[in-house]
Design a protein that fits this description.
rod-shaped, 41% helix
Length: 366
């Protein structure tokens, strides 16, 4: 009879022991409750949490001028301090713990992170690699490399002498500026930069940082860091493709003005000028298909082609008019007409050349 009375007590004892063990795990600093606390804002640090950022553009893979898009291979380094991640360097045997790839992602999921995003990024991140280092003092260094498409504002007015300033907008959408902010120090600027591009038509320039503020949907201010990448177009690579064919078409005017065989043949002059006009129109369509936006926008190439139409028509009208005026040697002003005709022959081409050079020089980056 006693065995039956004490048997239920023996069965209940393991259950109480299990509950006591779960309670001890949940309330201890290393338990689930502590892990949940580690994902909140760092405790024991002055707010806002300062997240230092360094950016390196490792390669410019593609630039779509008319679409306002580009594909970059970038490396973003973030640094912040979280006292909860401090450890005893003597006990661990090292003053720093490094984690890479999947181990780094799992570690990042268990701690607080700023949640840095690139606002003008399009789509996901390809070829992504990640590494995390934590120091004994609780400093965290997160390095992430990836390829991605970005949306930019581009100005094609100076094509092909343009210089593009492409801005990567970094922000912390989860935390207002009273909680976390983005900053760059002199050390971060030294670690930042733009590497040589695989695109032969672009030469990398400098990288600039600027702190900004943005207003969120909840009417709170958020920290934003604009990293502007400067790319300079190699305009000399467009000489053979654009300017040589353009001036070859316009050079027909020299033959019309100076050829002795065409001095009295207005019909042949008109045929050559109209053929040049058609050739100039064909070049416009060719340039537009090869370099979208080069003709449709107010670029130096578009201005030169537009002036080319006017120049060819003006050459034909002046030459025909002066030929008719100088045809009769008995006229009173025949000598003056011949002198004017001779002056016009070199003045018109020189003026057109000066105007084209002025357009190109004005478009050159300062």
């Amino acid at each position: 009879m006693r065995r039956r009375l004490f048997a239920p007590a023996r069965a209940v004892a393991p259950a109480f022991a299990l509950l006591a063990l779960l309670s001890a795990v949940l309330i201890t600093p290393g338990g689930a409750a502590a892990a949940e606390d580690r994902t909140a804002l760092p405790a024991g640090v002055e707010l806002p949490v300062r997240v230092r950022v360094a950016l390196r553009v490792l390669n410019v893979l593609e630039v779509k001028e008319t679409a306002g898009e580009g594909r970059f291979f970038v490396e973003i380094t973030q640094r912040w301090t979280d006292p909860r991640l401090a450890f005893d360097a003597i006990a661990v045997g090292s003053g720093r713990i490094d984690r890479i790839a999947g181990e780094a992602d799992a570690f990042l999921a268990s701690i607080w992170t700023p949640g840095l995003v690139v606002d003008n990024q399009i789509g996901g991140r390809d070829s992504r690699t990640v590494a995390v280092a934590t120091s004994a003092a609780g400093e965290v260094v997160l390095i992430e490399r990836f390829e991605a498409d970005f949306r930019f504002r581009m100005n094609m007015d100076a094509f092909p002498f343009d210089r593009q300033n492409l801005a990567l907008s970094l922000s912390l959408p989860r935390y207002a500026k009273q909680e976390a902010i983005l900053i760059t120090t002199e050390t971060d600027r030294l670690l930042s930069g733009v590497e040589e591009s695989s695109l032969v038509v672009w030469r990398p320039g400098r990288l600039r940082f600027a702190n900004e503020e943005t207003m969120g949907w909840n009417a709170r201010s958020y920290s934003r860091l604009a990293a502007t990448v400067e790319l300079v177009r190699q305009s000399d690579r467009y000489i053979l493709r654009i300017f040589v064919p353009l001036f070859a078409v316009l050079s027909v005017s020299l033959f019309v003005l100076w050829s002795p065989a065409l001095r009295e043949q207005e019909k042949d002059k008109g045929t050559m000028i109209f053929s040049s006009l058609l050739g100039l129109a064909a070049l416009s369509f060719t340039f537009e298909s090869s370099f979208p936006g080069a003709i449709s926008l107010n670029t130096p190439v578009a201005q030169m082609i537009s002036l080319g139409y006017l120049y060819l028509v003006l050459v034909l009208m002046i030459e025909v008019g002066l030929t008719a005026a100088c045809a009769d040697p008995t006229r009173r002003f025949h000598a003056a007409c011949l002198e004017l005709r001779w002056q016009i022959r070199w003045a018109l081409p020189v003026m057109m050349l000066i105007v084209c050079v002025g357009i190109a020089v004005r478009a050159l980056p300062g």
